């Protein structure tokens, strides 16, 4: 489906020499970056207008979170996901990763175990280890080409009193798997039985493919919400990572107080005015833009499917349900993901993410690469041609 003319996702916006981590950290200007998870699209017009009004005001002092912020946040999640968020459940911070770090500091002590379902977002590992905790892997099982949770193994890990938290990636990064209500309930029941708190990172929840739906973990029922901490942000959905704004949603007021204390001790509770205005505009007025974006992203995903099928049949695209991050099995190339990533960068001037980063040392993850397709279609076509030349060159 074509995007409305007012939302031009085909426009090429030069990002070199703008301080872009994605574009300006590469070894050369001829490298096409399709790695780190930000998009090469302009933000929604409603967000740009709101930020322009804030700039026009001209004063950028310390920021108070006003009522409109909470109304925008709660309105968005209630309209889209039937997730009713109360104001006294919300903590703000500068990002989901700082939120995870604060939660770990608040609810664990060095030596505790934190369960993660691998392969998974690489910052989970660093956040856990930086707190002095142990990464406890509950590997996902790849069955008939689809990731499944291993509940038998999870029960064993949750029963270990040393394991205090489970970090849930929902939807899942890197695969784009959307967890079902049944899967979430089984996970939640296991964790509740053993007093393991579920920290649900739902930063990708808006980036859904046609026919898919997101079930916030906390909406499964009061008993699940009582044992849950939800993390969300408009940064992925609306390409606002640089505005540094995220939310921690927690119903248990005792747990909330501990996390709030950790945020203040480490000075990551104070957010900036642009993040506040960006979130309000995105959640109040950005729905049409996001819907058009999702159509465009799905078209990009279909392009990858078609390209690999016709020209690179030795590669297998994971059948993802969400996100803009393609998870591609490269086993047939005979190269590890690190080796292929290196060749793509040096020979093809294409920068992608090695699967090894999502589970260091894993043979399974080492068979995959992750490719960011949130870009104008002409750039995606260029990236796929570079991939083809390196593999078939």
From TrEMBL:
Its cofactor is pyridoxal 5'-phosphate. Keywords: Lyase, Pyridoxal phosphate. The keyword Cell membrane does not apply. It is an enzyme of class 4 (lyase). GO terms for molecular function: cysteine-S-conjugate beta-lyase activity. Residues 72-386 form the Aminotransferase class I/classII large domain. Its EC number is 4.4.1.13. The keyword Acyltransferase does not apply. It holds the Pfam family Aminotran_1_2. Belongs to the class-II pyridoxal-phosphate-dependent aminotransferase family. MalY/PatB cystathionine beta-lyase subfamily. This is cysteine-S-conjugate beta-lyase.
């Amino acid at each position: 489906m074509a995007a409305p003319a007012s939302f031009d996702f085909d426009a090429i916006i030069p990002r070199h020499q703008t301080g872009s981590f994605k574009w300006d950290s590469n070894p050369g200007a001829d490298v096409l970056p399709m790695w780190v998870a930000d998009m090469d699209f302009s933000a929604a017009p409603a967000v740009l207008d709101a930020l322009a009004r804030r700039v026009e005001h001209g004063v950028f002092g310390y920021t108070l979170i006003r009522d409109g912020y909470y109304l925008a946040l709660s309105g968005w999640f209630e309209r889209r996901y039937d997730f009713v968020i109360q104001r006294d459940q919300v903590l703000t911070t500068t990002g989901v990763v700082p939120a995870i770090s604060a939660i770990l500091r608040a609810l664990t002590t060095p030596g505790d175990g934190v369960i993660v379902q691998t392969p998974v977002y690489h910052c989970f590992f660093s956040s856990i280890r930086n707190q002095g905790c142990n990464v406890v892997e509950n590997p996902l099982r790849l069955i008939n080409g689809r990731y499944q949770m291993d509940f038998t193994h999870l029960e064993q890990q949750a029963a270990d009193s040393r394991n205090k938290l489970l970090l849930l990636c929902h939807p899942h990064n890197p695969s784009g798997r959307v967890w079902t209500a049944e899967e979430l309930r089984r996970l939640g029941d296991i964790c509740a039985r053993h007093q393991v708190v579920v920290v649900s990172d739902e930063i990708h929840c808006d980036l859904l493919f046609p026919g898919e739906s997101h079930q916030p973990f906390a909406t499964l029922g009061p008993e699940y919400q009582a044992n849950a901490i939800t993390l969300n942000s408009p940064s992925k959905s609306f390409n606002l990572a640089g505005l540094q704004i995220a939310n921690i949603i927690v119903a248990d007021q005792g747990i909330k107080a501990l996390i709030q204390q950790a945020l203040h001790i480490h000075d990551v509770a104070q957010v900036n005015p642009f993040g506040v205005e960006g979130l309000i505009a995105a959640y109040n007025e950005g729905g049409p833009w996001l819907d058009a974006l999702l159509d465009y992203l799905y078209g990009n995903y279909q392009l990858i499917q078609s390209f690999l099928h016709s020209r690179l049949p030795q590669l297998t695209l994971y059948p993802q349900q969400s996100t803009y991050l393609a998870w591609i099995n490269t086993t047939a190339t005979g190269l590890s993901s690190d080796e292929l990533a290196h060749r793509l960068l040096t020979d093809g001037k294409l920068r992608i993410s090695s699967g090894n980063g999502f589970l260091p040392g894993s043979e399974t993850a080492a068979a995959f690469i992750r490719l960011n397709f949130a870009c104008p279609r002409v750039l995606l076509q260029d990236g796929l041609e570079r991939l083809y030349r390196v593999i078939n060159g």
